[in-house]
Each structure stands twice: as structure tokens, then as C-alpha cells.
TrEMBL record:
Originating organism: Citrus sinensis (Sweet orange)
Keyword annotations of the record: Hydrolase
Superkingdom to which the source organism belongs: Eukaryota
This protein's name: 3-hydroxyisobutyryl-CoA hydrolase 1
Taxonomic lineage from the root: Eukaryota, Viridiplantae, Streptophyta, Embryophyta, Tracheophyta
Length: 371
């Protein structure tokens, strides 16, 4: 097995005869983009494996660095960062060769973007998935409005708005993971995958199946209460969702309901409203349309014209760490529809243009279905 690594790209590349392995050493591995494009055109490469190093698979991006750049008056550099990332997400979602993401650890934010869009996602008992953006004054981006909106019922709204943490069993149950493999079997799984000389998803799935099991869903898992989640999170507005949850909490003392209520009350009101609309629009859009829309949204967030909650969230959670953000507007009822609409409009700046996603051809049926 050969390997190569440079200080610049911080992505460990390994290869066997027909398999390429990318190990992510840092968050939001934008440099994986060049390797992905190279592998896609290499006829010798049949399969791509993506995994993390250490405890995390990938815990999201260095948004603090983006905020520092914006505070210095350069939001366009932040836009370029997100543009590269979203293009990588699109490439992964429409990849012509199977990708196996081994999610043996934390999968949050940008970490979800480089894995959930892939063909196979392997969770373990160590997996922790979350989209915590509403607590940061952001929204679930990286094409999350595409995959969250396609989870069973309104589970995507629940996960996206509350930032709820899911374990490996819950990831498997809702479809964020395609397989569950105990971490003790991962070395054997990887060894078996290294020997694969096929790009046939059925062949690769059969290999993973040999090491997989159906995990036990814990008694307190919110996934047991999909009827309540659907009843509450199908509501038209965030205010109605919160009201429905509070109504349910008077009849039952389930921890997940009180946790959801507290999360919604602590989150940025603006973030909650744009996130709900984003996921709802995602139900009717292809992955490319979702990423184009999310790029507009994230650029508006960085410009801070409607709300500067992203900067305040990063200050409170990532920089000062007082965990006491002062949101403006401070209440859901102060965020009106016109304010929300602005996040979905084109940017009025001569330096800005819509993200240009690369043209894709010779796609497999699974990728075409996403378009």
C-alpha cells in the first residue's frame, strides 16, 4: 500500500490496486476536491474510501477563521471558501464511482457534507451526528436541505432545527447511514474493501453487509416517537412547531421533547426561520438546486445585512465561549417573512455571482436521481 501526504493538503492519500483511501486530518477538507476529480478519471480506481483520523470523522469547519476574515472586511474570501466546499459536496453527491465513508466518530456540519452525499455511509457505536448550525446563527448548509428533507417524515426538520445529536443506531434507522458496523470489525471491513476490484454498488454493499448488523435503538431515542415528531415538525412555522412541542410536553415527560424545546429557545430566531424554509424548499429540489440556494443564503449570512447572528454565535460558542449569544432579532415573532425572503435572493454586489457547479456526465442512476 502506497501513501503520500503534503503539509498543504492535510489529506492522507493511500492506494491499493483498485481502491483509494482518503483520510481527513483537518476539518472541511477542501483539498480532497483535487484527489476526487483525479480518481474519477482514473480507470484503475474502482472505489473510494473516506475516513477520519482519531476520535472524529470530521467535526465541521473552521468557521471562526471565516468570521475573522469577514470582520476584517473581506466577506468575499468567505464566499470563496463556501463555494469550494459546496462544489466538493456536489461532486460527492454525483460521483461516478462508489464512495464508502467510515463514520467512526463525530460527524458534524462540514463533516456531514463530505460523507452523507456519498453512496455508502458506515456508522459505528462511536458515531455522533449533528447539524448544530442554528445554535451558531447559521443554518444547515453543505446540501443538508437535500438530505435532511429526504429523511423519514419530518425527522429532518427535527434534526436540522434542534441540532439534536444522533448515535450510530439512529443514523442507521433514519437512513443517514446505510450500514452499521461495530468498530471492532472496521479493520476487517477495510481489509476486505481493499481487495475489491469492482465499481458495482451491489458488490460493495455485499462486502459491507458481511460485517454489518442491525443495531439496537436505545429506549430513550427520539426515533421511537416519530408520530410525535411528525405531528409537531410538520407545522408550517417555527412558532407553531414550538407551540406543538410545548403542548406535547404537558402530556408526557420525555427528555427528547424538553431538549428540543430548550434547543429551539436557545437558537437564533433568524437561523430557525431560514433553516425551516430551506429544508422545506429542499423537498422539491435536486441536490444542485439546493447547493445553489444554500450558497446564496450563506453569502447573505456573511454579509450580515438582515442579522449579524452568525458573528454573535461564533463569538459566544467558539471564541469567548460564554455560551450566551445575544441574538438580534431576539424573538421569533420579530423575524418577518420579508426578512426571511432576503436570504433567498441574489446578492446585490458586483463582486458576487451565483455558484457555478461543474458539468457532470456519464452518471450512474443513483446520481441522476439526485438531480
Amino acid at each position: 500500500m502506497a501513501s503520500a501526504q503534503s503539509q498543504e493538503d492535510q489529506v492522507l492519500e493511500e492506494e491499493t490496486s483498485f481502491v483509494r483511501i482518503l483520510t481527513l486530518n483537518r476539518p472541511r477538507q477542501l483539498n480532497a476536491l483535487s484527489a476526487q476529480m483525479r480518481y474519477e478519471t482514473d480507470s484503475n480506481v474502482k472505489l473510494l474510501i473516506l475516513k477520519g483520523k482519531g476520535r472524529a470523522f470530521c467535526a465541521g469547519g473552521d468557521v471562526a477563521a471565516v468570521v475573522r476574515g469577514i470582520n476584517e472586511g473581506d466577506w468575499i474570501s468567505g464566499a470563496k471558501f463556501f463555494s469550494k466546499e459546496f462544489i466538493l459536496n456536489y461532486l460527492m453527491a454525483t460521483y461516478t464511482k462508489p464512495q464508502v465513508s467510515i463514520l467512526n466518530g463525530i460527524v458534524m456540519g462540514g463533516g456531514a457534507g463530505v460523507s452523507i452525499h456519498g453512496r455508502f455511509r458506515v456508522a459505528t457505536e462511536n458515531s455522533v451526528f449533528a447539524m448544530p448550525e442554528t445554535a451558531l446563527g447559521l443554518f444547515p448548509d453543505i446540501g443538508a436541505s437535500y438530505f435532511l428533507s429526504r429523511l423519514p417524515g419530518f425527522f429532518g426538520e427535527y434534526v436540522g432545527l434542534t441540532g439534536a445529536r444522533l448515535d450510530g443506531a439512529e443514523m442507521r434507522a433514519c437512513g443517514l447511514a446505510t450500514h452499521f458496523v461495530p468498530s471492532s470489525r472496521l479493520a476487517l471491513l477495510e481489509e476486505a474493501l481493499y481487495k475489491v476490484n469492482s465499481s458495482d454498488p451491489a458488490v460493495i454493499s455485499a462486502v459491507i453487509d458481511k460485517f454489518s448488523l442491525e443495531p439496537y435503538l436505545k429506549d430513550h431515542s427520539a426515533y421511537h416517537w416519530m408520530d410525535v415528531i411528525d405531528k409537531c415538525f410538520s407545522r408550517r412555522t417555527v412558532e407553531e412547531i414550538l407551540s406543538a412541542l410545548e403542548s406535547e410536553s404537558t402530556n408526557r415527560a420525555d427528555a427528547w421533547i424538553s431538549d428540543a424545546i430548550q434547543s429551539l429557545k436557545k437558537a437564533s430566531p433568524t437561523s430557525l426561520k431560514i433553516s425551516l424554509r430551506s429544508i422545506r424548499e429542499g423537498r422539491l429540489q435536486g441536490v444542485g438546486q439546493c447547493l445553489i440556494r444554500e450558497y446564496r443564503m450563506v453569502c447573505h449570512v456573511m454579509m450580515g445585512e438582515v442579522s449579524k447572528d452568525f458573528f454573535e454565535g461564533c463569538r459566544a460558542i467558539l471564541l469567548d465561549k460564554d455560551k450566551n449569544p445575544k441574538w438580534k432579532p431576539s424573538k421569533l415573532e420579530l423575524v418577518n417573512d420579508n426578512m426571511v425572503d432576503q436570504y433567498f435572493s441574489k446578492i446585490n454586489d458586483d463582486r458576487w455571482e451565483d455558484i457555478k457547479l461543474p458539468a457532470r456526465s456519464n452518471l450512474p442512476a443513483t446520481a441522476i436521481a439526485k438531480l
